[in-house]
Amino acid sequence: MIKKFERFEEFLLVASLIVMVLLIFGQVVGRKVFESAPSWTEEMARYIHIFQVWIGASYAVKKRQHIRVEAFITRFKGFPRKVMESISIAIWFVIALFLAVFGTQLVLASINYGQVTPAMQLPMWIPFLAIPLGGAGMSIRLIQQLAAVWRGDYERNPEEEIVA
Amino acid sequence: MTIALLFGTLFVCLLIGVPIAISLGVSALVAIYFGSTLPLQIITQKAFTSLDSFPLLAIPFFMLAGILMGKGGVSKRLLDMASAMVGWMIGGLSMVTIVACMFFAAISGSGPATVAAIGGFMIPAMKARKYDGGFAAAVAASAGSIGVIIPPSIPFVLYGVIGGVSVGSMFLAGIIPGIVIGSGLMITSYFIAKKRGYKPESSVKFSFKDVLKATYEAKWALIIPVIILGGIYGGIFSPTEAAVVACVYAFIVGMFVYKELTWKSFYESCREAVVINATTMIIIGLSVSFAYFMTLEKIPDDISRFLTELSSNPIAILLAINVLLLIVGMFIDTISALVVLTPILLPIVTAVGVDPIHFGVILVANLAIGFITPPLGVNLFVASSVGNVKFERIVMAIIPFLISMIICLLVITFVPSMSLWLPSFTK
């Protein structure tokens, strides 16, 4: 079940990138070839991107891809390392939870104001939703990470290393 | 006091391995909560608004285009071309690595990606020819940093967005400095190769015909920089749109011309681009609050006063800033350094008459050196993992290349026309 959700999440992230490429490519072709381009493509690509970033950031927790200074911490193994990793995850958890809670407030406030986006006239709370969603996703992933660390699994898997 | 809180939290977090993005966010959170009357909501708002920018979208697209090109069989053609050009020199393979990195830099906007694409082939090849492993990895790691100087360049996009400078001008400004750094690295590697007796590639004899033939073979790759730069300066599209066109082009070439890209590797490329982009963007989203808080606390003014009291000579100020940036580059990644430092340093240098475009090149060149300085030198990590060389051995071997890059940096700093000459044609 969890595995399936992960595959779905991955698929959604990949699809969002492809949609962004198609939106903007379509806009270029529309402008150059048909001399008319819709005005909402840019805005839509921007908001898809924001969702992609915050959900991707939560996905990257699982894959241990966030950039950090490892020179000091990797000198430790066993119990001291587990303690340090746990403190680090706890600090991270504070920010993730903060984004989830304050992000939700931002969404609620925006619903009250009835703010809409300039081009698509979409209610503004929809793009704002990316922040609490990402924060909540990260919080859940961090709890899973904490459990993994205490099982002794705290090294980065070199096969999953991504470079770009 | 609040400042001590801000930097103290940052330092402790970085030390115990909290990701850089989170460290910056937590420091801002702690400092705002305990040291100011600002609403905390500002952090969430900035996490949204800082990413809500169309020019910024060029970053994920250039990432995707670079990855697609790497997996689509482009690296191999560029290597063949570089080999025909410089393989006959002393230390042939190290020369090929550097030149191939310069070409790949014209397709990719990232330093670590350039190391992976070229170093992945060349470090094992050099080791097979009995080059020292540390030297082989150091060549690839240092040459890979040219990836962010020769356009397209992700840091230039970010600098342009933050500093309000035209991304197109930044791209042009990077071309000559990138070639200068590449030449500097080639000279360094020549002397080392000569001392250690690394031979030229006996299979390669220099002939103009072979160079032309290899260049023709690589034509599909070489069209990319023409599309990107030509499209931007021809006024056909914006940098973000150019990046998207490059993605579509890379997909078509990899899938239908070279036929080395499969649907599976295409999916994998997109996934990689999304993850790398998310970890980059979240750094931007959270470090903006950190930078904002520093501005509120008038830290830029303090630094500015300190620097101008030190000297009113622009050369001395730039020198002091270079030292600061080199130190920062050792501990912090390029993206957060750009977000935090650009708003602080740009007003200081423009006040003493430095051109914003020139300063952008200096800033990014400094941070490019940060790619190869431990403890946080991303290119060193990548070279170590793709070349299977111990990190410590690369660190020793990188020193001559580091010195060479610093010399190039000083040249770039004190000869503004190197950066400003090409952009001057577009004005």
Cα end-to-end separation of chain B: 46 Å
What is the general shape of chain B?
globular
Order of helices and strands of chain B: HHHHHHHHHHHHHHHHHHHHH
Strand content of chain B: under 5%
Biggest beta-sheet profile of chain A = none
Helix content of chain B: over 70%
The SSE order of chain A reads HHHHH
- The total of beta strands of chain B comes to 0
Structural class of chain A: mainly alpha
For the biggest sheet of chain B, the summary is:
none
Question: What portion of residues of chain A belong to β-strands?
Answer: under 5%
- Count helical runs of chain A: 5
End-to-end CA span of chain A: 31 Å
What number is the mean pLDDT of chain A? 89
- Write down the oligomeric state: heterodimer
Give the largest interface pair and sizes.
A-B, 60 and 69 residues
Low-confidence blocks of residues of chain A:
none
Description of the structure:
- The complex is a heterodimer of chains A (164) and B (427).
- Chain A has 164 residues and is mostly helical.
- Helix content of chain A is 71%, strand content 0%.
- In chain A, helix 2 (40-62) runs parallel beside helix 5 (130-150).
- The radius of gyration of chain A is 20 Å and the shape is elongated.
- The mean pLDDT of chain A is 89.
- Chain B has helices spanning 2-15, 20-35, 41-49, 58-71, 74-86, 92-105, 111-128, 133-144, 154-163, 167-196, 208-217, 219-233, 239-257, 263-296, 299-310, 314-331, 334-351, 356-370, 378-387, 391-414, 416-420.
- In chain B, helix 4 (58-71) packs parallel to helix 13 (239-257).
- At the A-B interface, helix 1, helix 2 and helix 3 of A face helix 1, helix 2, helix 3, helix 4 and helix 7 of B.
